[in-house]
Write a structure and sequence with these properties.
Strand content: 35-45%
Helix content: 10-25%
Low-confidence stretches: 1-7
Distance between the termini: 21 Å
Number of strands: 12
CATH topology of the largest domain: FAD/NAD(P)-binding domain
CATH architecture of the largest domain: 3-Layer(bba) Sandwich
Radius of gyration: 22 Å
Order of helices and strands: HEEEEHEEEEEHEEEH
Number of domains: 2
Number of helices: 4
Length: about 220
Protein backbone atom coordinates (compact mmCIF):
# COMPACT_ATOMS: atom_id res chain seq x y z
CA UNK A 1 0.00 0.00 0.00
CA UNK A 2 2.80 2.42 0.92
CA UNK A 3 4.58 1.78 -2.41
CA UNK A 4 1.33 2.40 -4.31
CA UNK A 5 0.80 5.71 -2.50
CA UNK A 6 4.41 6.71 -3.20
CA UNK A 7 4.07 5.75 -6.86
CA UNK A 8 0.89 7.82 -7.20
CA UNK A 9 2.49 10.83 -5.49
CA UNK A 10 5.55 10.61 -7.73
CA UNK A 11 3.42 10.00 -10.86
CA UNK A 12 4.91 6.54 -11.30
CA UNK A 13 3.00 3.79 -13.09
CA UNK A 14 4.04 0.44 -11.55
CA UNK A 15 4.27 -2.57 -13.86
CA UNK A 16 4.39 -5.52 -11.44
CA UNK A 17 5.12 -9.10 -12.44
CA UNK A 18 5.48 -8.49 -16.16
CA UNK A 19 8.27 -10.24 -18.08
CA UNK A 20 11.38 -8.12 -18.52
CA UNK A 21 12.83 -8.57 -22.00
CA UNK A 22 15.89 -6.34 -22.41
CA UNK A 23 17.92 -3.87 -20.33
CA UNK A 24 20.18 -1.49 -22.28
CA UNK A 25 22.19 1.66 -21.57
CA UNK A 26 21.72 4.33 -24.21
CA UNK A 27 24.71 5.42 -26.28
CA UNK A 28 25.17 8.58 -24.22
CA UNK A 29 25.05 6.65 -20.92
CA UNK A 30 22.27 8.91 -19.67
CA UNK A 31 19.44 6.44 -19.13
CA UNK A 32 18.62 2.73 -19.01
CA UNK A 33 16.18 1.54 -21.65
CA UNK A 34 14.02 -1.28 -20.25
CA UNK A 35 11.76 -3.32 -22.51
CA UNK A 36 8.95 -5.34 -20.92
CA UNK A 37 5.80 -7.10 -22.03
CA UNK A 38 2.28 -7.03 -20.57
CA UNK A 39 -1.13 -8.14 -21.84
CA UNK A 40 -1.30 -5.20 -24.26
CA UNK A 41 2.09 -5.80 -25.87
CA UNK A 42 5.71 -4.68 -25.51
CA UNK A 43 6.65 -1.37 -23.89
CA UNK A 44 9.84 0.59 -23.29
CA UNK A 45 10.61 2.80 -20.30
CA UNK A 46 13.67 4.90 -19.60
CA UNK A 47 15.28 5.77 -16.28
CA UNK A 48 18.70 6.95 -15.07
CA UNK A 49 18.54 4.54 -12.11
CA UNK A 50 18.01 0.77 -12.00
CA UNK A 51 17.82 -1.29 -8.79
CA UNK A 52 18.01 -5.07 -8.76
CA UNK A 53 16.72 -6.68 -5.57
CA UNK A 54 16.10 -10.23 -6.73
CA UNK A 55 17.31 -12.21 -3.72
CA UNK A 56 19.01 -15.53 -4.53
CA UNK A 57 18.12 -15.09 -8.22
CA UNK A 58 20.49 -12.12 -8.56
CA UNK A 59 23.32 -13.99 -10.33
CA UNK A 60 20.87 -15.43 -12.85
CA UNK A 61 19.38 -11.97 -13.47
CA UNK A 62 22.82 -10.43 -13.96
CA UNK A 63 23.76 -13.09 -16.50
CA UNK A 64 20.44 -12.99 -18.37
CA UNK A 65 20.46 -9.20 -18.78
CA UNK A 66 24.25 -8.79 -18.96
CA UNK A 67 24.36 -6.40 -16.02
CA UNK A 68 27.80 -5.38 -14.71
CA UNK A 69 28.44 -6.35 -11.08
CA UNK A 70 31.20 -6.75 -8.47
CA UNK A 71 29.80 -9.59 -6.36
CA UNK A 72 28.22 -12.98 -6.78
CA UNK A 73 26.52 -15.38 -4.41
CA UNK A 74 26.73 -18.98 -3.35
CA UNK A 75 23.33 -20.47 -2.67
CA UNK A 76 22.73 -22.33 0.59
CA UNK A 77 19.38 -24.04 1.02
CA UNK A 78 17.75 -24.63 4.38
CA UNK A 79 14.60 -26.58 5.17
CA UNK A 80 12.01 -26.71 7.95
CA UNK A 81 9.66 -29.58 8.63
CA UNK A 82 6.26 -29.20 10.28
CA UNK A 83 5.21 -31.91 12.73
CA UNK A 84 1.49 -32.57 13.20
CA UNK A 85 1.50 -32.18 16.97
CA UNK A 86 2.99 -30.11 19.78
CA UNK A 87 6.42 -31.37 20.79
CA UNK A 88 7.66 -28.57 23.04
CA UNK A 89 5.89 -25.97 25.23
CA UNK A 90 8.19 -23.10 24.14
CA UNK A 91 10.85 -22.28 21.57
CA UNK A 92 13.89 -24.48 22.08
CA UNK A 93 17.34 -24.06 20.52
CA UNK A 94 19.32 -27.27 20.80
CA UNK A 95 22.71 -28.65 19.82
CA UNK A 96 23.45 -31.57 17.52
CA UNK A 97 26.21 -34.13 18.00
CA UNK A 98 28.53 -32.09 15.80
CA UNK A 99 27.74 -28.89 17.75
CA UNK A 100 25.44 -27.35 15.19
CA UNK A 101 22.29 -25.56 16.31
CA UNK A 102 18.75 -26.59 15.43
CA UNK A 103 15.40 -25.53 16.87
CA UNK A 104 11.90 -26.73 17.68
CA UNK A 105 9.21 -24.05 17.76
CA UNK A 106 5.49 -24.36 18.63
CA UNK A 107 3.41 -23.27 15.63
CA UNK A 108 -0.18 -22.98 14.45
CA UNK A 109 -2.95 -25.30 15.58
CA UNK A 110 -0.79 -27.44 17.82
CA UNK A 111 1.95 -28.17 15.26
CA UNK A 112 5.74 -27.81 15.65
CA UNK A 113 8.39 -26.47 13.27
CA UNK A 114 11.85 -28.08 13.28
CA UNK A 115 14.79 -26.52 11.43
CA UNK A 116 17.12 -25.91 9.88
CA UNK A 117 19.70 -27.37 7.49
CA UNK A 118 22.49 -26.02 5.29
CA UNK A 119 23.23 -27.40 1.84
CA UNK A 120 25.36 -25.77 -0.86
CA UNK A 121 23.41 -25.63 -4.13
CA UNK A 122 25.02 -25.52 -7.57
CA UNK A 123 21.85 -25.52 -9.65
CA UNK A 124 19.54 -22.63 -10.49
CA UNK A 125 17.18 -21.40 -7.77
CA UNK A 126 14.13 -22.88 -9.45
CA UNK A 127 15.78 -26.31 -9.54
CA UNK A 128 16.49 -26.51 -5.78
CA UNK A 129 14.50 -29.31 -4.15
CA UNK A 130 14.00 -30.89 -0.74
CA UNK A 131 16.44 -33.70 -0.07
CA UNK A 132 15.51 -36.83 1.88
CA UNK A 133 18.88 -36.64 3.64
CA UNK A 134 18.00 -33.23 5.11
CA UNK A 135 14.57 -34.40 6.29
CA UNK A 136 16.11 -37.44 7.99
CA UNK A 137 18.77 -35.22 9.56
CA UNK A 138 16.14 -33.06 11.28
CA UNK A 139 14.15 -36.09 12.41
CA UNK A 140 17.28 -37.62 13.95
CA UNK A 141 18.24 -34.37 15.65
CA UNK A 142 14.80 -34.04 17.23
CA UNK A 143 14.59 -37.70 18.25
CA UNK A 144 17.83 -37.34 20.18
CA UNK A 145 15.89 -35.18 22.67
CA UNK A 146 12.30 -36.46 22.41
CA UNK A 147 10.87 -39.21 24.64
CA UNK A 148 8.40 -40.18 21.91
CA UNK A 149 10.21 -40.42 18.55
CA UNK A 150 8.78 -38.83 15.41
CA UNK A 151 8.89 -40.19 11.86
CA UNK A 152 8.04 -39.22 8.29
CA UNK A 153 4.42 -40.08 9.02
CA UNK A 154 4.28 -37.19 11.51
CA UNK A 155 5.33 -34.56 8.96
CA UNK A 156 2.42 -32.46 7.72
CA UNK A 157 4.36 -29.77 5.87
CA UNK A 158 7.79 -28.61 4.69
CA UNK A 159 9.47 -25.31 3.82
CA UNK A 160 12.60 -24.61 1.82
CA UNK A 161 14.48 -21.34 1.55
CA UNK A 162 17.69 -20.23 -0.13
CA UNK A 163 20.23 -18.09 1.70
CA UNK A 164 22.52 -16.02 -0.56
CA UNK A 165 26.09 -15.88 0.76
CA UNK A 166 27.88 -12.92 -0.80
CA UNK A 167 31.38 -13.13 -2.20
CA UNK A 168 33.58 -11.08 -4.55
CA UNK A 169 32.89 -12.25 -8.09
CA UNK A 170 36.56 -13.19 -8.61
CA UNK A 171 37.03 -14.89 -5.23
CA UNK A 172 37.32 -18.68 -5.30
CA UNK A 173 37.70 -19.22 -1.54
CA UNK A 174 35.53 -21.62 0.45
CA UNK A 175 32.22 -20.95 2.16
CA UNK A 176 33.76 -19.88 5.46
CA UNK A 177 34.97 -16.62 3.87
CA UNK A 178 31.57 -15.75 2.42
CA UNK A 179 29.64 -12.92 3.99
CA UNK A 180 26.26 -13.56 5.60
CA UNK A 181 25.70 -9.79 5.66
CA UNK A 182 24.16 -7.88 2.80
CA UNK A 183 26.16 -5.96 0.21
CA UNK A 184 25.06 -2.97 -1.84
CA UNK A 185 26.89 -2.83 -5.16
CA UNK A 186 26.77 0.51 -7.01
CA UNK A 187 27.80 0.62 -10.68
CA UNK A 188 28.04 4.05 -12.34
CA UNK A 189 28.36 4.61 -16.07
CA UNK A 190 28.00 8.12 -17.38
CA UNK A 191 24.87 9.57 -15.79
CA UNK A 192 23.34 6.15 -15.04
CA UNK A 193 23.43 4.32 -11.73
CA UNK A 194 22.88 0.60 -11.26
CA UNK A 195 22.31 -0.62 -7.68
CA UNK A 196 22.47 -4.33 -6.87
CA UNK A 197 21.22 -5.56 -3.48
CA UNK A 198 22.95 -8.77 -2.40
CA UNK A 199 21.98 -10.93 0.54
CA UNK A 200 20.10 -9.61 3.54
CA UNK A 201 17.60 -11.17 5.92
CA UNK A 202 14.59 -10.27 8.04
CA UNK A 203 16.66 -8.78 10.85
CA UNK A 204 18.60 -6.45 8.53
CA UNK A 205 16.08 -5.59 5.79
CA UNK A 206 15.15 -2.19 7.24
CA UNK A 207 18.72 -0.93 7.54
CA UNK A 208 19.43 -2.29 4.07
CA UNK A 209 16.42 -0.45 2.63
CA UNK A 210 17.47 2.80 4.31
CA UNK A 211 20.96 2.57 2.79
CA UNK A 212 19.57 1.86 -0.66
CA UNK A 213 17.11 4.77 -0.36
CA UNK A 214 19.96 7.09 0.57
CA UNK A 215 21.70 6.17 -2.70
CA UNK A 216 18.68 6.93 -4.86
Amino acid sequence: MASKKYSKRQKINPAPQFPLLVVLVDTGSKVFAVLYRDESGEHEVEAPLLITATGPWIDEVNVQYRLPHNYRINKVSGIHIVINRALVPDCMFLQTNNRRIFFMIPWYEGTTIIGTTERMENCSCDEVKLQEEDINYLLNCANHYLKEPISRDDICGTFLGIRPLVIDKNDETDATSMSRDYKIDVIRKGETKLIHVYGGKLTTCLSMAEKVAALV
